[in-house]
Amino acid sequence: MSVKPASILLFAALAAVVSATNAVAQGIVKGNSYIPASSVEQPMDIGVRAHTYVQLLSGQGEGRVSPNGGLGPKNGLTPAQVRSAYNLPSAGGSKIIAIVDAYDDPNALADFNTFSAQYGLPQETSTSATATTNKVFQVVYASGTKPGTDSTGGWELEEALDIEWAHAMAPSAKIVLVEAATNAYATLFTAVDTATNYVDGNGTKVAEVSCSWGGSEFSGETSDDVHFTSASVTYFVSAGDSGSPAHYPSSSPYVVSCGGTTLNTTAAGAFQTEVAWNSGGGGPSTYETTPSYQSGVASRVGAARGTPDVAFVANPTTGVSVYDSYPQTGVGAGWQLVGGTSVSSPAIAGVANVAATSAGSFPLGSQALLTTIYKNLASTNFRDITSGNNGYAAQAGWDFVTGVGSPLGLIGFQKVVAAPSLTAVSPGSATVGSAAITGSVTGTGFLSGATVNLNGTALATVYVSSTQLTISIPAADLTTAGAATITAVNPGSSNSNSLTFTVNNPVPTVTSLSPNTAKHGGASFTLTITGTHFLSGSVVSWTSGKTTTVLPIKSTTSTTITVTVTSSLIATAGTATVTVANPTPGGGASSPVTFTIQ
Questions:
Q1: Alpha-carbon distance 405 to 311, whole Å?
Q2: Same-domain status, 76 and 142
Q3: pLDDT by residue (tens digit) across 531-543?
Q4: Are residues 476 and 566 in the same domain?
Q5: What is the 3-state secondary structure (H, E, C) of 263-284?
Q6: Which of residues 397, 413, 429 is at a domain's end?
Q7: What is the DSSP letter of 592?
């Protein structure tokens, strides 16, 4: 057996590396997916460099694969379709969603505005991508200087996807792209720290950070968790695109791990079904232990942190439309149909942003939001996905493929707030026609921002303490007699028990009768009664001796009533009394006024 010289072995090794590098530079095709070079992990990358979680539908434009039902460019799903599938609003959002990615996307601002124009979203009017006073979109260089670009264009596609779909889900939040110098974990974590502490020139703070990158888990990863522990920022991380096992930093207990689904639509674009994506990342962590918020699913996760926490559309076969004008190796530039859990992270960050804005407060860090998500497990606030397999089978309840499921509306991301309890309202009644009333409601569990409702309509409410609220009831609500319902609600809570507030009819008064005398045996006549607080339902009574007769009313105003007095009522000389009574609630009879029969 001959032994090859060391120089020949070194040359062969270098050739193999070059060959592998060239293959990766072109990306790879796996099933129906084209996986860009930036999304391919090499053994030497583990624990050193992160890769993207973006995939494209292979053969786009070549007739080999045709997506079903996407109504956007390249047949990708549109923001409107995605919102419809997840019962999400088309507006909302506040503060800053920071997108952390590697390398520079020189076309980020222009692509962001092209996407926004396509779908009627707010555009950034500034021509400077890095101006800190921009209102809608901005770029920040984490190292202080502009990074280089990714020669394959993969990270630029990732950046376009992230900024566009975070914006699509939270149109009123500002999107800030924080660019790391390279895809090395060290520089990416520096960018995460930059994003966490960033405040723009308008004084707007970062509320959420989205990271659509990562890689296989590695020993020592727990020491990097410190980058995700801010008590004021929530972190979202893609779970991966290669099925199980779990990836990092998705497996960190301090981030919301975002898994992937297949969102099936009709040919006309309407939502049909959602199943787990077989390439969606997930599984038990090798190094991270079970966090407290997963105690309710401990029978499934065991002693390890389980991923993902929540899922969103990610399969490139049912992918979304993205505009990326920076050329990508093997794909080109322009509109693309894109998938991967790189869609999930920024999109879910956007949904959570709108949910927090709607609730009036943002969660205090990732673990606060995760606690809320797991408390809402098995509720109608998440779509429980029970079919599909990524190495683990989707099943009822939480699983290693889709977590708690996909969001249905905003409530699943909102803290469960206890409803207050009411004990009394003071005053408990008012009279029809009264001026506006200032009163109070007492009870327990009132929070700042609590609102009192009268028959479901909010009253002007001032928080006094956890046991008292001050209310103002306008005169316009005191014009009709009846029983009204008083309830209270805390921000994000359901309604309290109800109390009754009564609007009472007034007691009428009679000041004069015209005429006030008549001759006995005379003919029937019209009697005019003058007074106050007469109503259309007032009743006039004629009492003579022990006999009371209700007189037929001819006309009524608030101060005058006319009635008919028949001849039989004045057939005998003497006196009679006339009273006017108003109906309940409240009401009652006036003092009697004497009529003389001569």
A1: 6
A2: yes
A3: 999 999 999 999 9
A4: no
A5: EEECCCCCEEEEEECCCCCCEE
A6: 413
A7: P
